Amino acid sequence: MKVVILAGGLGTRLAEETEVRPKPMVEIGGRPILWHIMRHYALYGLKEFYIAVGYRGEVIKRFFVDYHSLDGSISVDLASGQLHRQDPERTDWVVHLKNTGQETNTGGRLKRLEPFLLDGTFMLTYGDGVCDVKLDELLSFHRAQGRLATVTAVRPPARFGGLVLDGDVVADFTEKPQIGEGWINGGFLVMEPGVFRYLKGDESNLEADVLEQLASDKQLAAYRHEGFWQCMDTLRDKRLLESLWNERRWPWKIWE
């Protein structure tokens, strides 16, 4: 099964990081968040990726072109120029990097990939969010629903942490990763080729022109995910994910 990752947006709310690279290449623990997302899919045997690139797409392309040559240890014989690689990570992914335009909207990027996705069910997500959703259960749910698409519904992260008070003294700080009510689109979608009927061109918006219309036609199912989910929209989000990684409290790192 193929996996589409939308990775072409400007990432304006993370401008401190995205002036020189696209948001999916912003690093968590020394690796682009895009890599974290792909590791998640690969754990479930989903290893063929179509990455829709746009803004600074050359940065994403360069990462994958250099992936094996820069991974692991290397020895260089300067006299002969021979390069010997030792213990590189064996990553058996197939990655298709598709130019989808600088200004193309989210739905338009998917529309440009239509010729490659007409042979069956595919998965789709955004290049800026991680979670611990069980993708095999998501796929089983989608198939049982028999609709054109399924979206992973998640609880939105709380904006602030909490205080534990002992009288008038602060005893501790608590993290409140998710609030107890309301659901939002967390990405990690499953789709059938029939969704392309809802897409018209580069200006199509995935949320407004596809998901909302699918919902209106009773063709959008919602898989409720009560576990961890976190997007990286702002510098604060990036710092949160980085701190979780540095403290080895990484709920999305389920591949090891």
Total of helices: 8
Mean pLDDT: 88
Major sheet attributes: 8 strands, mixed
- The gross shape turns out to be globular
Helix content: 25-40%
How far do the termini sit from each other?
22 Å
Poorly predicted runs: none
What's a quick, concise take on this entry?
The protein is α/β, with parallel strands linked by helices and 256 residues long.
Structural overview:
The protein has 256 residues and is of the alpha/beta class. 27% of the residues lie in helices and 28% in strands. Strands 1, 4, 7, 8, 10, 13, 14 and 15 form an eight-stranded mixed beta sheet that branches. It has a two-stranded antiparallel ribbon with strand order 2-3. The two termini are 22 Å apart.
Set down the secondary structure blueprint.
Blueprint: E1 2-7, H1 15-18, E2 27-28, E3 31-32, H2 33-43, E4 48-53, H3 57-65, H4 67-70, E5 73-77, E6 82-86, E7 94-99, H5 106-112, E8 122-126, E9 129-131, H6 135-145, E10 149-154, E11 162-166, E12 169-174, E13 184-185, E14 189-191, H7 206-216, E15 220-225, E16 229-231, H8 235-246
Parallel strand pairs: 1-4, 1-8, 4-7, 10-15
Antiparallel strand pairs: 2-3, 5-6, 8-14, 9-16, 10-13, 10-14, 11-12
Helix pairs in contact: 5-7
Give the tags.
27% helix; two-stranded antiparallel ribbon; 256 residues; eight-stranded mixed sheet; alpha/beta
